[in-house]
Specification:
about 475 residues, alpha/beta, 17-stranded parallel sheet, four-stranded parallel sheet, 21 strands, globular, F-box-like_dom_sf, LRR_dom_sf
């Protein structure tokens, strides 16, 4: 039920019609309206009494679960609070003109966070979104957090101005028209001196990204398909993840990356790029490395796999390894890779993600575990490109299960105490590998299994009971 209706009931006493809520101080009434968590519902409380009509424009937060884009400007124009701590708006099919009209109003009063999500029509293509013009992004001098998800609408960056308080910035599904260099300039220490966290995902038109920041601590870049040049100069950066970036995976020599982050503790590098074009500065403090391997026969992919192995040899002292192994849906004929993997005795946490596409992954996963004898915690994720993966069968002659000694060979994981398994579907290959784990882990104390949402409760219960039959009674198995 609408909370404004509930307030109406509470505001009138059982006898005499006395308005009890309106007798409360303004700051307490405003706090009550903030708890509504919907600016439209808060405005509807004006029906309670004349005094309530002047309260909602004083709200320090404006939340709109869904609002017509042309109404946003009117709401902000009527708002009277000197400092807004939050603007949250989800709107459909907004035009750059309508958004550009009210964003400057928001920039003047916002001293906290803005979260704007634009949902596009499903029938509208990305190319059509390009022709709609650009949203003019004003300078938010006092904002601490900016999160923009624009449905591939164009974004025009401000040529000047300092985002003095900005600590977190997230840009998703945006178009930059001839402004590649402008994003790096905007995020520099001169214009964003307080920036700590940066996420840029699915940004079109970004062929060059050069950032120099003294304050940045955490950065994620993903799906920047047209990126050709990446330069990161961030002396304080602790965490960096770059995934599915760069221009052309079939011509990785066209891209260049230069990373200088001497304080980095966590590096995720999942890209196909010419190794000789990638310059990673000394990372003496690195503790976690994230890479991916492709079980597919292609020259450029093979060079990528070799480069990932080179990174493992370079950073043998890391404590956490985040490894994704990808199997193509077609026949698996790629070279066997794991014999080039170094022994990693300092690994205590292993995050192993598998995109199997119906293939057996036990041989490669076995070899990874064999090279990490000191692992204490294993996170095993069964990722999927298709909801029908469990129906996919290996084609005749597939070598994905070679060599088969992993099914019988002994493996002593004498430190492994905790295992978490995510998105388990209960396929034959998944079950076979999890079953073998019980024979390799003499000190296992806890296992948690989270089944994929496509599975049935009865199937999850059946698999859990079957796994329990292989487990020591001292092991705690929970199913989520």
């Amino acid at each position: 039920m609408d909370l404004s209706v509930e307030l109406l009931k509470l505001s009138v006493a059982d006898g005499g019609g006395e308005d009890r809520l309106s007798a409360l101080p303004d700051d307490l009434l405003i706090h009550i309206l903030v708890l509504v968590k919907d600016a439209a519902a808060a405005a509807r409380t004006s029906i309670l009494a004349s005094r309530w009509r002047r309260l909602w424009p004083l709200l320090p937060e404006l939340r709109f679960g869904s609002i017509e884009h042309h109404l946003l400007g009117a709401v902000l124009a009527a708002h009277e609070a000197p400092d807004l701590s939050l603007i949250l708006a989800h709107t459909k099919d907004a035009s750059p003109e309508s958004l550009s009209a009210w964003l400057p109003i928001a920039a003047r009063s916002l001293s906290g966070a803005i979260q704007l999500k634009v949902v596009r029509l499903e029938s509208e293509t990305e190319a059509e979104a390009v022709d709609n013009g650009d949203i003019d992004l004003p300078c938010f001098k006092k904002a601490t957090t900016i999160m923009l998800e624009l449905g591939f609408l164009g974004l025009a960056l401000p040529p000047s101005g300092v985002f003095a308080q900005l600590g977190d910035l997230k840009l998703v599904d945006i178009q930059l028209h001839g402004q590649s260099s402008g994003l790096g300039d905007l995020l520099s220490s001169q214009r964003c001196p307080s920036l700590r966290f940066l996420l840029v995902s699915d940004a079109r038109g970004l062929d060059s990204f050069n950032i120099q920041s003294d304050s940045l601590l955490h950065m994620k870049l993903s799906y920047l398909h047209h990126l050709q040049q990446l330069t990161v100069m961030a002396p304080a950066l602790k965490k960096l993840k770059v995934s599915r970036c760069f221009a052309d995976p079939l011509n990785p020599d066209l891209s260049v990356a230069n990373i200088s982050t001497p304080q980095l503790t966590s590096l995720g590098w999942r890209n196909i790029i010419e190794p000789s074009s990638t310059q990673l500065d000394k990372m003496m403090h690195l503790e976690k490395l994230g890479i991916e391997l492709f079980i597919v026969e292609a020259e450029e992919v093979f060079e990528h796999n070799q480069y990932c192995m080179t990174l493992l040899w370079r950073f043998q002292r890391i404590h956490t390894l985040d490894l994704l192994i990808y199997y193509p849906p077609a026949i698996c004929t790629g070279p066997y890779l794991m014999e080039h993997m170094p022994r990693l005795p300092d690994i205590t946490s292993l995050e192993l993600c598998v995109v199997a596409n119906g293939h057996s992954f036990g041989a490669n996963a076995f070899d990874v575990l064999r090279r990490c004898p000191g692992v204490k915690k294993l996170d095993l994720d069964f990722l999927s490109e298709s909801e029908l993966e469990e129906q996919t069968m290996c084609p005749s002659g597939c070598i994905c299960d070679q060599p088969q000694n992993w099914r019988t060979e002994e493996l002593a994981l004498n430190c492994l105490e905790e295992i978490e398994i995510h998105d388990m579907r209960g396929t034959e290959h998944e079950f076979a590998f999890v079953q073998r784990i019980f024979y390799w882990t003499p000190v296992l104390k806890r296992m948690q299994i989270i089944f994929h949402e496509s599975g049935t409760e009865s199937k999850a219960k059946e698999l859990s009971q079957l796994l329990l039959s292989y487990a020591d009674m001292k092991i705690s198995i929970s199913v989520a």
